[in-house]
Design goal:
alpha/beta, Beta-Lactamase, Rossmann fold, 3 domains, nine-stranded mixed β-sheet, elongated
């Protein structure tokens, strides 16, 4: 039997016997167990079984090579129907397979246990961070179809600079100067975009441009921001334990961050009741605050803030009044037809006739060809003029 063709049922039998004996999947133990199997196995087959059993009992199993592959940002498992990765150019299938949904389920449950979370029929989904920083989301079958679904978001293993993003084609030199001007003006801004568009990467690159004598206090659900900056204090939320105790929410952390003398308050992702405290902070002298938010375009960001704040009990009029007074700009990221991520446009906020805040395009980023002015350009000039002009 060639090593690359090891039968899954043989691996399953070896795994079960090792588990029954509480034996480690060493070469000696696997060889001993395989001697009880019918047939004769050569050294290559034994080593292949050792490798497979180890992958199935530690780490991310067959997904482990994908998680450490340079450039991979997401690994997605659609039951037994396929595994996909995102290397920055959209999703693409990879030749990794599972023998059945039971195997996918075991992997999902093992990863959840590594994160200290529960995943079973009574609690069929999990959203957690693994010890290496990888973001795990999983939903068990039959809730998920066509089987257990696993989504892994791989944290960046390096901090990107604006120059790196220019080199990657995500931003042109002229666009980078506009963003540097936004930072220098200490304007409050959010970065919007869909999942996987590079919001965290861009925010980290921008924070690296903040003067070294400023203190950054970063609040996140999962520690993903790694700005190359000399003075960063990070706070990370925590879910409740199995007894329902010990939860620390983003809203709790935003309140604590405001007492830590931040020069800039950074909320990794605004997605819940913490929006109320963030808006309050932006309206009480905390300049330069920033964060990310999910939205289809910069124009949709005020409505997104409104929905989040209303669910937290803040009246609509108060939401828009605080947005108008506290938030200056929205940087929107998108994906091109080829799947590449890029900074798309920057919008500024203005109050409409009804008192509702609108976000209007100020500049559109056209890659290496520069930036094009929009109807909000004069407002942006005024914002940047606090320290410098466009």
């Amino acid at each position: 039997m060639p090593a690359q063709a090891v039968a899954s049922d043989l691996v399953d039998r070896v795994r079960r016997r090792l588990a029954a004996e509480a034996a480690a999947p060493t070469a000696d133990n696997v060889a001993r167990v395989m001697r009880a199997e019918p047939g004769v196995f050569g050294p290559e087959t034994v080593l292949a079984v050792v490798d497979q059993v180890r992958r199935d009992t530690a780490g991310a199993g067959p997904l482990e090579p994908l998680l450490v592959e340079p450039g991979v940002t997401d690994v997605l498992v659609n039951g037994t129907r396929g595994v996909y990765v995102d290397r920055g150019q959209g999703l693409e299938p990879v030749p990794v397979g599972f023998g059945g949904d039971d195997e996918v389920r075991r992997l999902a449950q093992r990863l959840a246990s590594l994160a200290g979370r529960r995943l079973d029929d009574a609690s069929p989904w999990v959203d957690a961070r693994l010890p290496d920083g990888t973001r795990l989301h999983a939903v068990l079958a039959p809730i998920a179809h066509p089987g257990t679904v696993i989504s892994l978001r791989v944290p960046s293993r390096r901090s990107f600079s604006l120059d790196d993003l220019i080199a990657a084609g995500a931003l042109g030199p002229d666009g980078a100067e506009v963003l540097r001007g936004l930072l220098a003006s200490r304007a409050a801004f959010v970065i919007s975009g869909g999942t996987g568009t590079g919001k965290t990467t861009l925010l980290s690159a921008l924070l690296a441009e903040v003067p070294v004598d400023e203190r950054l206090v970063v609040v996140e659900d999962a520690a993903e921001l790694r700005p190359d900056h000399a003075h960063v204090v990070a706070l990370e939320s925590r879910p409740a334990n199995v007894e329902g105790r010990g939860e620390v929410t983003l809203r709790d952390l935003v309140r604590q961050a405001l007492r830590m003398r931040p020069d800039r308050l950074v909320v990794g992702e605004v997605r819940g009741a913490e929006v109320v405290d963030l808006l309050a902070a932006l309206n009480t002298g905390h300049e330069g605050g920033c964060g990310t938010i999910h939205a289809n375009s910069a124009a949709d960001v005020p409505a997104r803030f409104e929905a989040l704040a209303l669910s937290a009990g803040l009246p609509r009029e108060a939401v828009h009044a605080q947005l108008a007074a506290g938030l200056d700009a929205v940087i929107h990221l998108g994906r091109g037809p080829d799947g590449r991520r890029a900074v798309d446009h920057l919008g500024v906020l203005r109050v409409g006739p009804s008192g509702v805040v609108e976000c209007v395009p100020a500049v559109t980023f056209d890659g290496l060809r520069g930036v094009r002015s929009g109807p909000g350009h004069e407002v942006l000039r005024a914002v940047l003029g606090r320290r410098r002009a466009v």
